[in-house]
Amino acid sequence: MVFIDDPLELGRIITNPGKEYQTCNRQFQGIPGIEITPKGRLWATWYTGGVGEGPENFVVLVTSLNSGKHWSEPVMVIDPIGKVRAFDANVWIDPLGRLWFFWSQSYSKEEGNIFDGQSGVWGMFTENPETASPHWSEPVRFAEGVMMNKPTILSNGEWIFPTALWEDNLCGGKIPEELKSLSGANLTVSNDQGKTFEHRGGVAIPGRRHDEHMFIERQDGRIWNLIRSSYGIGQSYSCDGGGTWSSGEDTGWGGPNSRFFIRRLQSNRLLLINHALDPETGKYSRKNLVAYLSDDDGKSWHGGLMLDERAEVSYPDGTQDKDGNIWIIYDRERYRCGDILFARFREEDIVAGKCVSNVASLKNLINSTGEL
What we know:
The structure is a single chain. By secondary structure, the chain is mainly beta. The protein has three domains: 1-136, Neuraminidase (6 Propeller); 149-252, no CATH class; 264-372, no CATH class. 2% of the residues lie in helices and 41% in strands. It has one helix and 26 strands. It is globular, with a radius of gyration of 19 Å.
């Protein structure tokens, strides 16, 4: 296969990464995702390369087989050539037990100019995620734009994917005229378990920033679209499966204009990971990362387990294993120490507001690189 400097074409997939991709040769890194298999193998991904967000970015995939005590060096890397960057990756186990690996690609002229106005979301899967070096399916570019967060399975069996096309002229990118109608927090759907995909609808809420949205199916059947915004977290609803959306409004949950994480747990409660208000400044910032629970479908939140109170902790992603343990991954100080960390806890820890279960463990280091 010939690889070219084109963001619409598949970037290099390196299944035996060399020394140049190892921790000792990396600087900036962050924006992670995590998943765990039924037998307990952990998978984690993030992007790195260069000194910041820019054309040198590539995506790494690592794994652990001992509950996160030890992690591998990259077992796979997505590294497009030239000025095409790979970024915003995630991992997800589908209802068939397959591990999906998602990432986005965009042309990047220089550091800080990270969006070409189009981009594209890629995905591939393996049917044997319990092994450290699995065989992967042929990658597919299935949506315009970017996808950072995990899909959601609806009660009717549809798989819905939170894809987004950023605002025009955001981070240097101008959306092609024929794609401008797609600008927003979109819903891409698969009705055949990931064989085919189609765009169904989307919304551009007031104050949106990079979208980074997640979907929840409410008990009343509506799809709830929760979206990163300048005021924290915005929301929009769809009553027709994602075809049309309400205009958008503030959830009132607050936040520092950053990624959050929300997911329905096995107990049917909702889990929210968000930044809490700093009592010292009375403002939100990328510190005080806290886990909350809702028993009433998101109308109210309780508990409050502080996962990390330090500055520059951000971008949580998570999963729940078969035993009910919750795993949350996040980054810290991307441009200095480049920490990738995880927390493991249970619902009772959130309710208590402190670690009370025998599995709870916070601030666990997966990887650290860059200047210390």
